[in-house]
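tokens incoming
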């Protein structure tokens, strides 16, 4: 039986998730949600039926059976759809940055724990081949004892999503989950990597 997923937010990242779900065996689109009817109409030609397209998440969830929700809305609007899905006991995967403040993040984590429901942040580099290789080399002792990790971020000029570009320290918001998280996973003993470790 396929895992039925609702994708909320159909900007570039949301459309990436839509395509991935449509091409992955074991998954199917239950519904898509975006506040812009023009965007919804555009995705209707991508194997999404008009009856699966909504401008309101509550309506989408009320009218469709689903198992999980992917939140790919603009940066400042992650909390509400996460909260709505978690309150219904639905698994949630949310794009980074997870939340814009610690209070909102704690609130969502607490709700997920109360509901015993998965809540994960997407776009984690730790599964890229380069980081898996680094973890394997470190675990094997090929680099000796690692006492410090330095991360540097270089990228050719590119367009950043407007919702991210407007934030103070936008590069940190855009990459902050990647490098510290990878450094953590690469340097902890195998089997001890913890997502909740504080830096």
């Amino acid at each position: 039986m396929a895992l039925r997923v609702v994708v909320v937010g159909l900007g570039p990242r949301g459309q990436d998730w839509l395509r991935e779900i449509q091409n992955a065996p074991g998954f199917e689109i239950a519904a898509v949600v975006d506040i812009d009817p023009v965007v919804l109409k555009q995705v209707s030609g991508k194997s999404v039926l008009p009856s699966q397209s909504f401008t309101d998440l509550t309506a989408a969830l009320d009218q469709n059976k689903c198992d999980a929700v992917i939140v790919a809305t603009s940066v400042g609007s992650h909390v509400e759809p996460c909260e709505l899905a978690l309150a219904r006991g639905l698994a949630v995967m949310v794009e980074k940055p997870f939340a814009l403040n610690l209070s909102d993040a704690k609130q969502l984590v607490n709700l997920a724990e109360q509901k015993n429901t998965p809540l994960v942040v997407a776009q984690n580099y730790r599964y890229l081949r380069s980081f898996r290789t680094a973890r394997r080399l470190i675990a094997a002792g090929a680099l000796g004892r690692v006492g410090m990790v330095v991360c540097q971020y270089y990228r050719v000029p590119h367009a950043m999503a407007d919702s991210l570009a407007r934030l103070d320290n936008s590069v940190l918001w855009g990459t902050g989950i990647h490098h510290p998280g990878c450094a953590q996973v690469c340097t902890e003993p195998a089997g001890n990597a913890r997502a909740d470790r504080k830096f």
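note: The beta strands are 3-8, 27-33, 53-54, 68-71, 91-94, 119-121.
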